[in-house]
Specification:
The chain has 352 residues and is an alpha+beta fold. It has 8 helices and 9 strands. A hairpin with a 2-residue loop joins strand 3 and strand 4.
Length: 352
């Protein structure tokens, strides 16, 4: 699921002169962002050349073996399902022909044939459900292995010792909705939930998609890794939002009622109704957030600080978030994830 290009940040009528100025500013920002993306991609290419160590190679090998085992069983089941479908079709057609041929000679043949057809269809229903459940079990086995090994590696440090990895676990919708990034947000879908007792607080991390509804269908607002952490920020009714600006697929924050734009550069924008927001979101923290570099993999970064909660979302590309099935698993993606997780943890450590 990929984010769509955002269009129309401001639908209010503006003068032609203002529109031209705004358009020029947007183009300038986009040009700078695109140049930054190219620069970051060049750095990524250098990192791709680095060799994996023995532990990393072993994890990559284990995951690819688990993936191949699942893929082999899935292909085998698809072939078996095709064979069964053909046999059932032949049997049903044969039974129908027999019924039409003999019904004038022996009346009960109609009921016998209809009974056979019902039994065949019932058998198909049962076998289909059985094969589906079995394949689902194999899928969960692979996913558990995948996320178990990845999270075990990323959160292997002693400070993450108290953790609960739930590959099929889901983060509560409210955590994304109450963060207040997008006014049209209606819900989320998530997986790969990791709950960690970190510095005597609860840290939740999940792969999450936040969506809105367009004509009754879901449309993505955010797709990436979402971090939810407790804080001691206690200014009731206050909120701080920040976004590290991205390229065309980045959707600007729009749930801004009651907030003011308190700071903006070509790289980020901050909104808040807290007059002393800089005491919480300090220049040092902003600098550290900007260490999460925008490139073809990382689309943008969103941050929400409100009483009791700090939420950070890293919006990644579809390719980065997909579970590998037909393609080979590349451990370099885990290295990238670990690097970004460390940067987020560093930021969360500073937001008290």
């Amino acid at each position: 699921m990929g984010l769509k290009k955002y269009e129309g940040a401001n639908e209010q009528q503006v003068s032609t002169e203002t529109a031209v100025v705004d358009e020029a500013k947007i183009k300038e920002e986009q040009s700078e962002i695109e140049a930054m993306i190219l620069e970051n991609e060049a750095e990524n290419a250098e990192n791709e050349q680095k060799s994996l160590d023995d532990e990393q190679k072993e994890i990559e090998k284990e995951i690819n073996e688990a993936k191949q085992e699942y893929l082999t069983k899935a292909k085998k089941q698809r072939r078996l399902s095709t064979i069964i479908s053909v046999l059932v079709l032949v049997l049903l057609v044969g039974t129908l022909v027999l019924m039409l041929t003999l019904q004038k000679i022996w009346g009960p043949i109609t009921y016998v044939c209809l009974g056979v057809m019902v039994l065949v269809l019932a058998g198909v229903f049962v076998s289909t459900k059985f094969f589906k459940n079995r394949l689902q079990g194999e899928s969960e086995k692979y996913i558990n292995k995948l996320f178990g090994l990845i999270n075990g590696y990323i959160y292997r440090e002693e400070k993450f010792a108290e953790k609960d990895i739930k590959p099929n676990g889901q983060m509560r919708d409210e955590l994304f909705l109450e963060a207040g990034f997008y006014k049209e947000a209606k819900g989320t879908k998530s997986r790969n939930l990791v709950m960690i007792k970190y510095n005597e607080k609860t840290l939740g991390v999940a792969d999450l998609a936040g969506f809105m509804l367009v004509k009754g269908r879901t449309s993505p607002l955010f797709l990436g890794r979402y971090f939810d952490y407790e804080n001691s920020y206690s200014k009731e009714g206050c909120r701080i939002l920040m976004q590290v600006k991205g390229g065309e697929l980045s959707k600007p924050l729009d749930n801004l009622e009651g907030l003011e734009k308190v700071s903006e550069t070509n790289r980020y924008v901050i909104y808040s109704n807290d007059k002393e927001w800089e005491k919480t979101l300090t220049s040092k923290i902003i600098k550290d957030i900007l260490q999460l570099k925008i490139d073809k993999t990382l689309i943008d970064v969103i941050v929400s600080i409100r009483p009791g909660k700090t939420d950070i979302g890293i919006d990644y590309s579809d390719e980065f978030m997909n579970i590998p099935v037909e393609t080979e698993f590349n451990f370099k993606n885990v290295i990238r994830s670990e690097c970004d997780v460390k940067k987020v943890i560093n930021v969360l450590d500073q937001i008290k």
